[in-house]
Please model this.
Amino acid sequence: TSTALTRTDVRPNAMPSHTVLYVRRDAALHRHSGMVYCRANKRACEGIRIKVVEIPAMTRRTLLATSLGAAAAAALNAAPADNTRLPIKKAVGWGMLPPDLSELDKFKLTKDCGFQEMECQTTPDRAKAEELLAASRETGIRIHSVMNMDHWKYPLSSSDHSVVDKSIAGMETSLHNAKLWGADTVLLVPGVVNPETSYEQCYERSRANIFKLIPLAKQLGVVIAVEEVWNKFLVSPVDYARYIDSFGSPQIKAYFDVGNVVLYGYPQQWIRTLGPRIAKLHIKDFYFRKGETKWVNLGEGDIKWNAIYSALADVGYRGSATLEVAGGGADYLKDVSARFERILSGGEQVAAG
Model:
């Protein structure tokens, strides 16, 4: 085994010939010469105790059938053998709900359709914000996140200080909304790369302005969750992770959108790279075949949901996931909720029928 590991042989009475293995979720597991071991670089393993006991040589199928195999399955990029439902709360996006309903009826519909939480939009009107809070309390549907609304029109990456001031003001409103509603995150698109704003400028300006928001976020106990979108920025999981890490603050995390990266990446890989940086998830599907690209209902696109399931299990994600698909009435929302449930349960078939 690697010299980076601290190895202690342990032979419990219950399993004298089996392995007791404690590894980081993102460590790589290998089978070699009849044993299971963990290999990681020295720096990554500092302070981590790895306990390994040799086991008889096994085939992969036999290994996965054992209790050890079940524990190692996630690191082998396989879904848990029993397809345990992921401990993730289902949320609906405010824009998916029928616009003609009252605020209270929107929350009631959300509950009737099998959702546990909701993501609401920035609400400057205090009376309207209080109305949403009352509907949340009456129905038991938690507002878990705030969708900031000004970051596209007024990007933090702008060279115009008046634009940035409006963007920061919008974020401050969103953060106060979150505090009022009991939400723990505000979604933020950090900036936009365009002919007027280079990647480097977007990086530097957005960071400088987000730093200004951290004191308020900390005071209110809210996380600013940066989302990757089609803004030509944060276009790789490594870049995304480094950007989040550059703040050195628990108030800045990732709001990972599964569907936004499928044109140029594999969302399951992004999930594993981002790992504990992920505060929240957006869930949607995307179809891109025969020159046609379009957003579609869950299970009707090209996202490999079993791979997403396995990746989320690997990193131990236990938060909220908000659907971001087309809206509709009760029957449609119940169907979407059922599809979502099948994804979270590791089902082979997401769409019914």
